[in-house]
Amino acid sequence: MAETSAPPNRTLRRGLIGLIGLAIATLGILVASQIGTLFPGGAVAATSAPSPSPSAAPSPTQVAIEPTASPAPPTEPPPSTPPPPSLVPAPLTGMPVTAEAAAQHVIAVMVDDQADARPQSGFNSASMVWQAPAEGGIPRYMMLFQETIPDGVGPVRSSREYYIEWAAEWKAMYVHAGGSPQALRTLASKGHGQWVYNAEEFRWEGRYMWRTTDRFPPHNVYTDGEHLRALAKKLSAKDGAMEPAWLFAPDAVPAQRPSGGSIRVVYPYETISYRYDAATNTYIRYINGSKKPQRDRAGGEVVAPKNVVILRMAFGALNDGHPQKHRLEAQNVGKGVAYISTNGQTIKGQWRKTSRTAPTRLFDRDGNPVVLTAGQTFVQVIGLNYSFSIKDGKAPPPPVWIPPPHRDDI
Fold this sequence. Notes:
Oligomer: single chain
Number of strands: 22
Distance between the termini: 108 Å
CATH class of the largest domain: Alpha Beta
Largest sheet: 10 strands, mixed
Number of domains: 2
Strand order of the largest sheet: 7-6-3-5-4-21-14-17-18-19
Number of helices: 6
CATH superfamily of the largest domain: YerB-like
Strand content: 25-35%
CATH architecture of the largest domain: 3-Layer(bba) Sandwich
Structural class: alpha+beta
């Protein structure tokens, strides 16, 4: 049988088709190799070449691609930041504090004011400070601690009846070192939670109070907040909600504060003065005309309350059988004239106390409760014959009204 050959044009066509197929295969191999280079361990599998048998060596045209690694399991989300504790007004200052701090039992401490006792400790931790005549023309302090725990307090001194009655407004733990016979009788009958909780230094010295060696008696009895809180627990002076006696509001804005201003109160033993500072909206305190302000021995900071209140009331000799002591008693139940200084301005109003344990309240000329600035208050109690002066600063200029631009100017 004779062999026949394909026509030349058919042979050429088959050759071209073969070349085209070879080019396509080569191009596929190149593309697959580039993918393997750009995506090592990628998820693209080469399918252009058949899989070799187990015994066959890999063909040069086959591309091996690593399997994709499994993703790491999702981690737990980071713990969220707990919200800040909600704040409430402190009952004696109106300052925002935690509910726990606002419920701390009030602690009243009698503090010495003789020259040998200065500088005293505890002023700047007190929510409220009372100063009134005590004996021989020498005044005495009573510091009330509530939301803030003081680092140090003292020197602790003796009690008087009218101080107990001011402390009784809060059923406070009343800390003292001795006292007048009148005061000690009251504490014996009313000092177990009826009016106050009696914290007598003579009983608790060595455990909750102590005597320092850098001062001589009787100006060396000290304590601190940690021991006072422990003693309050010992005496069952429990924490709990209490009703504020005064109203408080935030500081006046700087543009509304006057510049300058002063207060001067004269006791027979010393003169207390304040200078209003508009920048801090406080009354910086001075003693006996000193050019340097009073400082708290605990911390060394300047004493500068937000409010200064002057209460005028009658004082008389205490007939307790010890005339040489020149002890006093005060007509602190009833009503009288009050001068209330806050935000650099002073109003003349009235104080009222309806009973020995009722709160001392403050009213303006129209009989409305006075609103103080949130923060510490110093109460200066003076006799009717004591001199004092109050000079408010220069009022700030009224704000200038600038009319809005006309629509044609916009």
